[in-house]
Design goal:
Blueprint: E1 3-8, E2 13-14, H1 16-25, E3 34-41, E4 46-47, H2 49-64, E5 68-73, H3 80-87, H4 89-92, E6 98-100, H5 108-112, E7 119-125, H6 136-147, H7 154-175, E8 182-191, E9 196-204, H8 210-221, H9 223-226, H10 230-240, H11 252-261, E10 266-270, E11 275-278, E12 290-293, E13 303-309
Parallel strand pairs: 1-3, 2-4, 3-5, 5-6
Antiparallel strand pairs: 7-8, 8-9, 9-13, 10-11, 10-13, 11-12
C-alpha cells in the first residue's frame, strides 16, 4: 500500500519557523516510498507569505514527481483558504493537486490584483520567459511605496526594496536550473497598537540550490571556500559576491543583503536540506550570529525571505 505523508499545520499563525516544524513532524514528503501527501489546515490556521510560497513550491514539486497531493481546509474559504485565493496561491498551484472542500470558483487575486496597500499577489517567475517578469520588481517596489508613503525615507526604502526584489528574482532566472516556476510575493504586516510593522518579501524556486551549484566550481577555483559550512559559505557569498561564474557575476545576494541591512532585515535562506537564518548586526551578517539547521526534510531549490523592520 502506498505510503501516506500527512503534514499538519497548527491552529495559529504559521511563518517559516512553524512551516519547518510541521515538515519535521511529518515523515518527509519527498521520501522515496511516499506516494500521497496531505496538507491539513485546521480552523484558526493563518499562513504568512514566507511559509505560503515554500508550501506552494513544495506542493508543485510533489505533483511534478507524480505523487498524489491534497490540500484540506477545515474552514473552507472563510479561513486561510480565502487568503490563499486573495494572494494568488491557487492561480499558481498545479491543476492536478486536489483541494478540499473545493478550489475557489473564481480567483480573488485576478479580480482585485493591485488594489491592496499591503499585499502584492504571488508572481510566477518562469526562467524561460524573462520578458514576462521584467515588471515584477517594479510592481513590488510600487506597492511598498503606496503602503509606506508617509515615511520620510520612502525614496531610500523604495530603492532598497527594488534592488532586493530585482536581484532575488534575477537569481532565480540565472541560477535555479528548474522546469518549475519560481514565485515572488510581498506582504506588509502592520501592528496598529504600536504604529509599527514589518515587511516580508519572499522568493522561492524549485531548482538545484544556490550552494549546490556553487561548491563544485569552488572545488577548482577556491578549495578553502568549498570546505566551509553552509552558514559560513552563505555569509561569504553575501560579503564577497561569490559566484560559480566568478566574482563579477556574484553580486546578486550581496547587493540584496547590503540594501536589506539598512532596514535591519532578517535573512532566512532555506536550501534543499538545510536552513540558515541570519540576524543583522552593525557589521553585517556574521556566521556567529546565525541560526543554522541541518538534515531537514528535502525541499528542492532555494527559498529566500527578507523581513524588514519598519519601525
Amino acid at each position: 500500500m502506498p505510503a501516506l505523508c500527512n503534514l499538519e499545520f497548527p491552529a495559529r499563525w504559521v511563518d517559516s519557523d512553524q512551516f519547518e516544524m510541521a515538515l519535521q513532524r511529518s515523515s518527509g514528503p519527498h521520501q522515496p516510498d511516499v506516494r500521497e501527501v496531505v496538507f491539513k489546515f485546521p480552523i484558526g490556521c493563518k499562513v504568512m507569505v514566507d511559509a505560503a510560497v515554500r508550501l506552494l513550491s513544495l506542493a508543485n514539486q510533489l505533483n511534478h514527481t507524480f505523487r498524489r497531493v491534497r490540500l484540506e481546509f477545515d474552514e473552507g474559504e472563510a479561513g486561510v483558504m480565502g487568503y490563499f485565493n486573495r494572494m494568488g496561491f491557487f492561480d499558481c498551484l498545479a491543476e492536478d493537486i486536489e483541494v478540499t472542500p473545493d478550489r475557489p470558483f473564481y480567483s480573488s487575486a485576478s479580480l482585485f490584483r493591485g488594489t491592496s496597500d499591503s499585499l502584492v499577489e504571488i508572481a510566477s517567475i518562469n526562467p524561460a520567459d524573462r520578458i514576462a517578469v521584467q515588471n515584477v520588481p517594479g510592481r513590488l517596489a510600487d506597492a511598498l511605496v503606496n503602503a509606506c508613503s508617509r515615511r520620510k525615507d520612502i525614496k531610500a526604502l523604495e530603492k532598497a526594496a527594488f534592488t532586493v526584489f530585482a536581484e532575488l528574482i534575477s537569481n532565480i532566472l540565472d541560477h535555479s536550473s528548474t522546469r518549475l516556476d519560481g514565485f515572488a510575493v510581498l506582504q506588509l504586516y502592520k501592528r496598529k497598537k504600536r504604529k509599527t510593522g514589518s515587511l516580508k518579501v519572499s522568493v522561492s524556486d524549485s531548482g538545484i540550490g544556490i550552494l549546490d551549484t556553487l561548491r563544485p566550481a569552488l572545488n577548482t577555483t577556491d578549495p578553502a571556500l568549498a570546505k566551509l559550512t553552509d552558514t559560513e559559505l552563505l555569509v561569504e557569498v553575501i560579503r564577497q559576491g561569490i559566484s560559480r561564474h566568478g566574482k563579477t557575476r556574484g553580486q546578486g545576494l550581496k547587493g540584496s543583503a547590503k540594501q536589506a541591512l539598512k532596514y535591519h532585515a532578517q535573512l532566512d535562506v532555506r536550501l534543499p536540506q538545510s536552513r540558515i537564518v541570519l540576524i543583522p548586526s552593525r557589521t553585517g551578517y556574521e556566521p556567529h550570529k546565525a541560526y543554522s539547521y541541518g538534515d531537514l526534510p528535502l525541499i528542492w531549490g532555494t527559498h529566500i525571505s527578507f523581513e524588514f523592520d519598519l519601525t
